[in-house]
Amino acid sequence: MTENLQHAREQLLLISQQLCALGLNCGTSGNASIRVNDAQGQLGLLITPSGMAVDKMTLDDLVWMDFSGSAQGNRAPSSEWRFHVDILRQRPEINTVIHTHSVFATTLSTLRRDIPAFHYMIAMAGGDSIRCAPYALFGSQQLSDNALLALKQRKACLLANHGMIAIGETAEKALSITVEVETLCEQYLRALQVGEPYVLTQQEMAEVYEQFKGYGAWATNP
Fold first, then answer.
1. Parallel/antiparallel/unpaired status of strands 132-133 and 156-159
2. Structure pTM?
């Protein structure tokens, strides 16, 4: 096992544990992946296993896959491996994919509506909205296709009646986006209980993108 692969295993297990500790996933829900070379240098990804609770998961349970969908490991890959493979194959700047069934993102996804720019932090996902991908069966190619469209020029999306996806150049950035999207989902749901929130204009959001160029964790975003 190369240092690169070993480090990726440790990162993936840690981020999976953090998602549970933060209440963003629980039990066997959700999954995550990291782009990495295997021991022979072949480019692919590590992904969490199918149907396994994180508190039972070890480094050896993580599954390596290539970009054709072939898997190597002691366990089967997550049933959602298709959108992990497709996202990492089509977005070379992205190195980590996180999928959660977190409470507020999942609740909002059942409304099947995009999240508009009701708050300037929407910009951290790469645009003036967080799109909601149309519903498709979990684990299906159609779900992956829908997610890819919803993630076009974005770093997060909702999956209708399902949950969310967040992506990032690093595991830390992907986790930060996941946390921020869940917070925005909670805020938007609370606002909707009162009425329709005011939405920032394109000019106001353009000013946010400019400000974000030097703003901490989001400095690499638009």
1. parallel
2. 0.94
